[in-house]
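Sample pair:
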Amino acid sequence: MTRNPFINAVAAALYIAGVVSLLYFGIPLIAAPGQQPPFLFFVSILSLFVLSVLAMCISFLLQPFILAFESKPREGAKLLLQTGGIFAIIVAALFTALFVIFG
């Protein structure tokens, strides 16, 4: 990703929102209520999980590891912690909004 922790954290949040939207709106298209989804659906979900792990690793870990390998481990650790902290603030804001709206 980038060396901007805000962009990395927002990209991760947007990716998660996209995956959740796909699942939320896509499942009713695959199987009618009360019907079990086809086997290929479960294979697709597991594949999506693996892809999500890769996307989150790229979003959170790629640049910090590059910095560490460039002999800048403090900068890498700082970027990782800043990205994680900003993402934690985004998650806290989402949970706060959830409890305020549906409280």
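The chain has one domain: 1-29+58-103.
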